């Protein structure tokens, strides 16, 4: 049995990215619109410089009384996030997330962001794999 790669989790979607000069409010609106829990913060060459999550919005902005309309992502993002390559085995990426307490992990190829995996992606992958192995195509 082959070990699936992270690239299988990011095949059909592009990562949602923003610059660090965007405000927290702008980022939260984008996360709400796309129903995602994190945004990758990139420089002008699409290299990841940070990650901003819904938890960051609560813990680093709201709980501290900051104004999301004025607070820039650069002030509250997690800078220099750990990243994985598309070639990583999914189990290794999941282990990295679990060991470090991450819910999201940027995927980088040649220094540029190509995707973002979340814990939910691994659950979905398991459900699809189970469906294929049992011959059932409906979602469980």
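Q: What amino acid sequence fits the structure above?
A:
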């Amino acid at each position: 049995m082959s070990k699936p790669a992270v690239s299988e989790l990011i095949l059909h979607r592009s990562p949602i990215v923003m610059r660090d000069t965007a405000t927290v409010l702008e980022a939260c609106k984008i996360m709400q619109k796309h129903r995602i829990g994190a945004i990758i913060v990139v420089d002008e060459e699409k290299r990841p410089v940070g990650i901003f999550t819904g938890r960051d919005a609560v813990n680093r902005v709201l709980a501290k009384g900051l104004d999301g309309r004025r607070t820039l992502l650069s002030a509250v993002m997690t800078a220099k996030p750990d990243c994985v390559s598309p070639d990583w085995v999914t189990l290794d990426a999941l282990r990295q997330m679990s060991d470090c307490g991450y819910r999201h992990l940027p995927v980088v190829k040649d220094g540029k962001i190509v995707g973002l995996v979340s814990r939910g992606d691994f659950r979905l992958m398991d459900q699809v794999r189970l469906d294929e192995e049992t011959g059932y195509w409906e979602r469980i």
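Q: And what stands out in the fold?
A: The first helix runs from residue 24 to 34.
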